[in-house]
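### Sample
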Amino acid sequence: MVSPISVLVFGQDAHLLETRRWLLEAAGYQVRTTGEYPEVVRILDAESIRLLILCHTLSAEECRRVLAAANRPHGLKTLALTAGMRGCHDHVQTEVLDALDGPAKFVSTVDRLTRITLIAKGNG
């Protein structure tokens, strides 16, 4: 049996984190959420996270810090959620999605990004 793909969602709004967790768990993902930068670093160091999702509730400084920590050679993908013009979208290797596009687009984007990772690793 294939183990679920692990996703980490980082943001400052607890309600949004729980909603995103629920959506992704319903789609079959193993989801971790946090609002604390040190916890992001700990999880990235300790677990096999395939996709890091950055919520639009993060400050520009929080985005820079977490993207620097996530910039590792193990192929971690990142998805930055925006709300209109706000969000962590200044990182060249970060996929960007407007959160206002809705839950179906959110889940399909996560599916696409994690599928790309599986194919790149020869598991798809």
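The helical segments are 14-26, 37-46, 60-70, 103-120. This sample (DNA-binding response OmpR family regulator) is used throughout the tutorial notebook.
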